[in-house]
Amino acid sequence: MLTCPVCQSPLARQDRQLRCDNNHSYDQAKQGYFNLLLNTAKKSKQPGDNAAMVQARSAFLNAGHYQSISDTINQLAIDQLLQNQTENVNVLDLGCGEGYYSDRLNLALNDHQIQHEFYGLDISKDAVKSATKRSKAIHWLVANANQAPFAKNSMALILNVFNRIMPNALANLCHPKGRVLIASAGAYHLQQLKEAIYENPRFVEFDAISTMAEYFEHEHRQTLDFTIKLDPNSTEHLIGMTPHAWRSAPNVQQGLLSQQQLELRVQINLDSFTLKPSALTAVDEEASESE
Ligand SMILES: C[S@@+](CC[C@H](N)C(=O)[O-])C[C@H]1O[C@@H](n2cnc3c(N)ncnc32)[C@H](O)[C@@H]1O
Ligand SMILES: [Zn+2]
Predict the structure, then answer these.
(1) Domain count within the chain
(2) Element containing residue 156 per DSSP (H, E)
(3) pTM for the full model?
């Protein structure tokens, strides 16, 4: 299932090591994850979210503010996997961060006796290290989503929660009968935060459907729209995990933190996609053109 990031041949597990036929080997870190990120695939020394952002995200998510998003993702995922009725499916959380959604989905799939292998992948070592504390049952990987170390079209379900969408990578990974579930911000997501930070805030929606359109058919959209009430602790965590907030002026941040209760609108689109049959060959052709 796992493939070598250097030569793309299958990786076999021997105790705490992964090794391919060409003798490239990868040791398991003491926390239990594997690092399959090649130095050449890194744009910076520490790609992805840094430790402070990871910690802020963990604290915010642990307070339960986004639990209904996770619950809805789980329900959609379970419905889709039960329709498929395939034995022991592969599930991937791409850009899993510190593992909140992966852990909760993995537990929900167990509750529904859906046999599966769960992979959580992120480019940030700090995020994956933190994720290992949530679950020992998930295969945690440090890797680049654009060069994800999995056999082609091997994932029955791919989660993509609040990450940049990489349609080509998703098409490469998605099983012909699989699903991709994308959670992305609606136009009015964190409306009051944007209003506090920007003089002329723009409320435009990120268009997940046309971003995916080359390779994927849009199947279903569910929008969640609700209000959360944050105490100053949670506001600080939200600022810490939201780049446009932590880059804002100190007086803006102080203003937000001085509110005993900050009411914020949360607006999330959950979209599910199926692979277009044409995508199975299109991705292959593109790969051979770029070789
Ligand atoms: C906004 S966070 C979302 C994390 C998690 N899905 C959540 O919602 O809690 C985006 C994540 O994508 C990761 N990331 C960014 N570029 C990546 C890439 N090329 N491959 C894998 N992960 C990447 C970051 O390290 C970060 O953890
Ligand atoms: Zn190899």
Answers:
(1) 1
(2) strand 155-161
(3) 0.95
Cα–Cα distances in Å, from 219 out to 76, 88, 123, 197? Answer: 12, 24, 28, 35
Assess whether the C-beta atom of 96 lies below 6 angstroms from ligand 1.
yes
Closest residue by Cα to atom 27, ligand 1, is 97
Check which CATH number belongs to the domain holding 204 and give it. 3.40.50.150
Q: Is the CB of 60 under 6 A from ligand 1?
A: no
Is 17 inside any structural domain? no
Element counts in the chain: helices (H) and strands (E) = 11, 11
Query: Would you state the structure tokens that stand for residue 8, as one six-digit string?
Result: 């793309």
| Residue 272 belongs to domain spanning | 45-289
Flag whether 19 is in a domain.
Answer: no
For 86-132, how does the pLDDT look when each residue is reduced to its tens digit (9 = 90+)? 788 999 999 999 999 999 999 999 999 999 999 999 999 999 999 99
Q: Let me know if residue 104 belongs to a domain.
A: yes
Q: Are 91 and 101 contacting, i.e. CB atoms less than 8 angstroms apart?
A: no
Asked if residue 66 is part of any domain, the answer here is: yes
- Any atom of ligand 1 within 6 Å of the Cβ of 5: no
Q: Whose CA is nearest to atom 17 of ligand 1?
A: 123
* 206 pocket-lining for ligand 1 (C-beta < 6 Å): no
Closest-lying ligand to the alpha carbon of 9? 2
Sequential DSSP letters for 28-59: BPTTS-EE---GGG-SSSS-SS-HHHHHHHHH
For ligand 1, whether the C-beta of 163 sits within 6 Å is: yes
